[in-house]
């Protein structure tokens, strides 16, 4: 058996079961003519399939009935005019269908949607119709009976925890999806955060193993990096992008898995791939051990517009190296020492080549002199800087309007992680409350893909309409709240 | 059991089996990007369900693919811009769908279509896609293995026969549909002509019995007339229109059925309803035995714009009376004599009150002095006038540009029937060749709902786009060709 086949067979063994639940909206029945519309509220965010019945309301419908059915994760999405969408990502992600129905019948729509609200507009009917038996069959592989409430006594943190676990639940399908509305695929960056939160909430180890194996089966690029995303429906397909920080986070995800399970079987089969990822990254360092710029989409780091992310990427490398060396130590791998020495060398190089002593910050040529929170956070997480010096740097940079700031909950997670690493518990809690709590103030049922508190129209893709409002990488407040018993 | 339940149970017993056949277009596979389109030609008119497969052509599709799929009974329909449709009948009959497809999969479209051509336009895809495995699963309750070729040696009549039987085949589904594109329901006027042609072609008696029972189960209006149309999917529904000529043609259909089968079981249960229909019509005659104008849509006769159809309707009454009296005689019903006397009386009244001796034509106040072929044809079929006098009248009226002329193949059928009744076989053959042969010259695969040779844009419904190009009532050339061995 080839490695690929082996990993796919392991992924298949660990396919999680989906749990289904029918959600019945409050409105039971609606009699409508051409132009009428009805708004259904599921009362919660849900991922699944919508069905309804249509019947005559008096005379026979006479001609096919045309319905426009729109699904919105929030009310803004329902109210948006999709025809005005400024195409960046494909408009086909916008959840709207035109249905022609020939005669009275029950219709189960074939596609899966992510929504709280459903708007049905009767575009054309010759005779009044009755719409009824609305049902949304929601699915998730998260077993909600396993979930314990967070122990926090802070009401806001408790509310944040509920919405965060809900976000994770919605993204847990047959694998860890990034967002159930869009892109509905497995990204390494999302996987790492979902798996982390899952250890403290739904504790579904199958899905985590499955996702690790799905990446292990992927096709590496010419630099040797694993794919950054995977499709699995209707068949396995290894994604075309190979982002260096995501390849490194695969290694971190394996380390996380071992830390929470002690499961050597998985580590044994993935250890070689982890070493190869780190070796591939080592190969793009220059003689000073500093990462070199590569062609194409080499680093993600964050959707922050204009961000230069190479210093941050260097920090991700150190972060992965440190976690991996701990794993090697725990399992008694003799290469442990070699990794430790390399970590020390790279940290020295970062201090020497990437740190501006006058500015007392990581500002350098690598990022064209750009100051960013991202660089500081990842240098802290990479262990290049610590203690009071790091605290001061982080706080001042977060307050600096001239510094590039985190945009995604994904990058905010690592900012918070840096705070916890620096024992800045109060600041971290405040950070969670301000950012994730801010989404709650806007009525979020699940946490969003992107959120800038003073720019609700921000989108990484030119148009807010396409944003995903239930996005895996924003689920980690539950991890922090539960791990640190906030 | 109520009468309605009884008739519905009989209709159910006689539900015909559908025969399915997969039609595979010539094109096997098509690789497309946004904006590309493909035209599939089934090589024949077909009624059924379309399926196809979509796969990646290289990279994964990345985002849902939006396809616009259009079905056309002919190429004009494919080329029509449906957005320009001038709404009379509902635009939802226009056969076009917008499909969003999330990932590579086989799609079987849920609705039934009537078409020869299928155009697939890739409205939006991020990556090239492959479309393949095109299949149209056609259905009909006509058993083509039963059909014998017509015995005619005339090449054109033979071609007309083939297209006419094909038209009938397409309309034979679980009942006699008027048109498989539109309205897909059972109309009495169509039923009569379909049943008639069926006796000479597919000889499916079940479907005919089923349709007679479906009408027998219908709800009569306050005048006592049966409904003119019936829906049967997903449940039985008695149509809201009660047209007098169609109610009379129900009686004729029962007479036809007995004539071709000798089946007394059916006649016994339907005889009372037939008598009631004739009695209801008798009740709307004035003291001179002439039909009186009623509110609403009282007579159909033809889709000829501006037609006054009461004289024709009076002829339909006589036609039904005569056929029914023959049935009564054949089965030994003692009321036979009573009907004969009434026929004689009504014919006298027609001559006296509806015939213009100076004009030597049926032109009268009842129709506001309008001259129409329709009046002459139905007075001939009603036996009011015959022989050379009738021939002359019919020929001159058909040539008269000031006379209202038949528009539908339905009315053309009765014009031809009048010719055969008057032993004008040559003229009738010429009439079939000119009219139905004319549709052939325009490439018809099936005969149309409406056709005016010098006005290809004619529609009874304001816009030709909505016309049905496979319409049951145009199938009767096969009846004439086979019955009269042309």
Percent in strands of chain A: 15-25%
N-to-C series of helices and strands of chain A: HEEEEHEEEEHEHHEEHHHHHHHHH
In terms of structural class, how would the helical and strand content of chain A be classed?
A: alpha+beta
Number of helices of chain A: 14
Low-pLDDT regions of chain A: none
Describe, in plain words, how this protein is organized in 3D.
Two copies of one chain form a homodimer. With 486 residues, chain A is α+β, with helices and mostly antiparallel strands. The first copy, chain A, folds into two domains: 20-140, Galactose-binding domain-like (Jelly Rolls), CATH 2.60.120; 155-483, Glycosyltransferase (Alpha/alpha barrel). The first copy, chain A, contains 14 helices and eleven strands. In chain A, the strands form two sheets. In chain A, strands 1, 2, 3, 4, 5, 6, 7 and 8 form an eight-stranded antiparallel sheet that branches. In chain A, helix 1 (3-13) packs antiparallel against helix 5. At the A-B interface, strand 5 of A face strand 5 of B.
């Amino acid at each position: 058996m080839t490695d690929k086949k082996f990993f796919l067979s392991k992924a298949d063994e660990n396919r999680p079961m989906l749990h289904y639940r029918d959600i019945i909206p409050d409105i039971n029945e609606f009699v409508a003519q051409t132009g009428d519309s009805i708004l259904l509220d599921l009362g919660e965010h849900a991922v699944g399939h919508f069905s309804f019945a249509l019947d005559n309301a008096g005379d026979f419908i006479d001609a096919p009935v045309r319905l426009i059915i729109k699904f919105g994760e929030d009310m803004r999405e329902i109210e948006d005019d999709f025809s005005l969408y400024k195409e960046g990502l494909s408009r086909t992600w916008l959840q709207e269908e035109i249905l022609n129905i020939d005669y009275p019948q029950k219709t189960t729509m074939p596609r899966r949607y992510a929504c709280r609200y459903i708007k049905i507009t009767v575009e054309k009917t010759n005779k009044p119709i009755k719409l009824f038996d609305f049902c949304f069959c929601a699915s998730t592989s998260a077993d909600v009976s396993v979930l314990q409430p967070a122990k926090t006594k802070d009401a806001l943190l408790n509310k944040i925890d509920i919405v965060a676990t809900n976000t994770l639940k919605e993204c847990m399908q047959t694998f860890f999806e990034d967002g159930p509305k869009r892109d509905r695929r497995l990204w390494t960056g999302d996987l790492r955060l979902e798996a982390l939160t899952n250890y403290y909430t739904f504790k579904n180890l199958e899905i985590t193993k499955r996702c690790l194996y799905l990446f292990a089966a992927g096709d590496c690029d010419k630099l040797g990096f694993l794919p950054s995303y995977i499709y699995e429906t209707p068949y396995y397909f290894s994604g075309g992008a190979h982002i260096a920080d995501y390849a490194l986070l695969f290694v971190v995800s394996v380390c996380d898995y071992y830390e929470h399970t002690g499961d050597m079987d998985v580590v044994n089969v993935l250890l070689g791939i982890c070493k190869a990822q780190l070796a591939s990254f080592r190969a793009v360092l220059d003689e000073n051990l500093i990462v070199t710029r590569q062609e194409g989409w080499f680093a993600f780091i964050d959707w922050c517009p204009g961000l230069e992310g190479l210093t941050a990427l260097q920090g991700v490398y150190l972060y992965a190296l440190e976690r991996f060396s701990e794993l090697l130590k725990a399992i008694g791998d003799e290469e442990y020492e070699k990794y430790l020495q390399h970590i020390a060398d790279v940290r020295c190089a970062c201090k020497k080549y990437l740190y501006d002593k006058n500015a007392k910050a990581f500002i350098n040529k690598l990022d064209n002199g750009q100051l960013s929170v991202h660089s500081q956070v990842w240098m802290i997480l990479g262990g290049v800087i610590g203690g009071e010096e790091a605290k001061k740097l982080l706080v001042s940079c977060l307050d600096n309007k001239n510094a590039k700031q985190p945009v995604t909950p994904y990058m905010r997670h690592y900012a918070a992680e840096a705070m916890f690493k620096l024992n800045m518990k109060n600041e971290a809690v405040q950070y969670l409350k301000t950012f994730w709590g801010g989404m709650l103030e806007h009525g979020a049922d699940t946490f969003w893909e992107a959120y800038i508190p003073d720019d609700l129209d921000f989108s990484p893709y030119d148009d807010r309409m396409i944003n995903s409002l239930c996005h895996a990488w924003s689920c980690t407040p539950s991890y922090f709240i539960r791990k640190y018993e906030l």
